[in-house]
Amino acid sequence: MPNIDDPLVIAGKTYRSRLLTGTGKYQDMEQTRLATEAAGAEIITVAIRRTNIGQNPGEPNLLDVLPPDRYTYLPNTAGCYNVDDAVRTCKLARELLDGHDLVKLEVLGDEKTLYPDVVATLKAAEILIKDGFKVMVYTSDDPIVARRLEEMGCVAVMPLAGPIGSGLGIQNRYNILEIVQNARVPVLVDAGVGTASDATIAMELGCDGVLMNTAIAAAKDPVLMAGAMKKAVEAGREAFRAGRMPRKRYASASSPIDGTFF
């Protein structure tokens, strides 16, 4: 179990799990439910443009499978390529979820890599914050941009560790480390994780959490992978808190050798 004395705090609310999971790309709603439960996630993302949470009456509703009284929904603006679409999507989510104001902002700049459009992201974040939204923001691994988003009032900064859906792992650990060491809001790796060891590395760098979807949903056994990711995030956090041994070029004797008879 996650350490209850070491909670994740986002926008004033505490969570025991540091693993946030997406709800897309699964075979069906039942697999979504099973994987979410196996991951132990408390915050779940939902792409408003792709997932029904009430806007399409008569279709399967995610709220019926993952009830909002059990999970904190994090509506995201996946698929938005400009400021207006991102802001409009967040407002729709707030309406559908009875005033819910915690959102994940992403404004994409390239259809191939799904890299963020940083300029548009900054503009959208400013608009949403002024409108009362609590913004968790997907961004590049630029430490200066991360700092600017924090200064604007974003409640969490979520730099990519690799291209969305790539599974390439943590490709930019020094940039991530720089962001972590200078941030005063939670930093969560978003995008790039492919397997459990990637999640552990992110946490060992000092990240406050990891958000993933494809790494679980695209696994051969998503439910089993969800459980592996849960353990990986917990292990990485514990290792970070414990403090690893210094790296050394050579091993050193574990016992003193002065005065030893040979």
How are the elements arranged and paired?
Layout (H helix, E strand, L loop, with lengths): L7 E3 L2 E3 L3 E4 L6 H11 L3 E5 L14 H4 L6 E5 L6 H14 L5 E4 L12 H13 L3 E6 L3 H10 L3 E4 L13 H10 L5 E3 L5 H9 L4 E4 L1 H4 L4 H21 L20
Parallel strand pairs: 3-4, 3-10, 4-5, 6-7, 7-8, 9-10
Antiparallel strand pairs: 1-2
Helix pairs in contact: 1-9, 3-4, 4-5, 5-6, 7-9
Describe the structure.
With 262 residues, the protein is of the alpha/beta class. The strands form three sheets. It has a five-stranded parallel sheet with strand order 5-4-3-10-9. Strands 6-7-8 form a three-stranded parallel sheet. α2 links the parallel β4 and β5. The longest helix is centred in the last third of the chain and has 21 residues. The mean pLDDT is 92.
Total number of beta strands: 10
What portion of residues is helical? 25-40%
Give the helix/strand class.
Answer: alpha/beta
For the terminal residues, how far apart are their CA atoms? 49 Å
The residue ranges in which pLDDT falls below 50 over 5 or more consecutive positions are: none
Q: Sketch the major β-sheet.
A: 5 strands, parallel
> What is the C-alpha radius of gyration, as a whole number of Å?
20 Å
Biggest sheet strand order reads 5-4-3-10-9
Strand-residue proportion = 15-25%
Please work out how many helical segments DSSP would assign.
Answer: 9
Let me know the average pLDDT.
Answer: 92
* Gross geometry: globular
Element-level helix/strand string: EEEHEHEHEHEHEHEHEHH
